[in-house]
């Protein structure tokens, strides 16, 4: 076993604490990655809040990170020690089902092994995440990090980035596509950057007028205030693709009203129950879809695309010792647009 150091949550409402814990020895197809930078995702916050109040509830969050390969198993050929690597929220899958064979390991029918809170497919242990100095995983779920990408600002690409890239590519976004992005947060700002880089005419939908300058800086052509009924009415049936990154429960009807004939609303932010009127879909043959993470081919393609087009997250970099400040501020929406932890202070 290998000993590392990280930040552990024990109970909801309590601060994460620095702990030492063990990682497994490398298997034949494993790589060990020194974690340099890890993004702070809303999923981390939800997972901490979902911890039980009693019992053994060890949780080390973190599932979008970059670092350097420090060791490899004997069967590994894709990496050598010293290579820059990036890892997302999936670290294994069955590899045999139709989804895995199609390169959609994120939809593995046996369920993919998550970077934290998942179940290891070999020994049944619970995976512990990347708010830590070292991570060990199957090599095929680590990705070479292009040298053109800043490793700190690239870390959120491995969760937030691939989450919005998946529907943008699946829906064929191109220079002929009119795209709207609802919500300008951790997901939304990357959806804007990627849609713009794909050449699409891109608009932000927000309830915050103070996001207008940011929307234009990110490359958006317009901002629609969702609280202004005149603006919403003027934009009816305008967009071929609407990427909904709003993280709280909300009505889908007003957003569907903005979708064009045969267009698609892709709902990414809120993963709970939704209510809608069938007529909101019927009039215009509109489609409602969703997506989550991405398979190995899509993740590799996204990283290469981001390197070619200089797309990274807008981040606030913090030493990992301030992880509790980052989580508190994230819960209050006080971030533009992604916290990233510098794990070097765990050395």
What are the main properties of this structure?
single chain, 347 residues, alpha/beta, 7-stranded mixed sheet, 6-stranded parallel sheet, 27% strand, globular
- What's the number of helices? 11
Helix content: 10-25%
Order of helices and strands: EEEHEEEHEEEHHEHEHEHEHEHEHEHE
- Oligomeric assembly: single chain
How would you characterize the largest beta sheet? Answer: 7 strands, mixed
Q: Please state roughly what percent of the residues sit in beta strands, choosing from under 5%, 5-15%, 15-25%, 25-35%, 35-45% or over 45%.
A: 25-35%
Number-wise, the strands total: 17
Secondary structure: elements and pairs:
Layout: E1 2-8, E2 17-23, E3 30-40, H1 42-49, E4 65-72, E5 84-87, E6 90-92, H2 98-101, E7 113-114, E8 134-138, E9 142-144, H3 151-154, H4 160-170, E10 178-182, H5 186-197, E11 201-206, H6 212-217, E12 222-225, H7 229-234, E13 239-244, H8 253-256, E14 259-267, H9 278-282, E15 287-290, H10 296-309, E16 315-319, H11 323-331, E17 338-342
Parallel strand pairs: 10-11, 10-13, 11-12, 13-14, 14-15, 16-17
Antiparallel strand pairs: 1-2, 3-4, 3-8, 3-17, 4-5, 5-9, 6-7
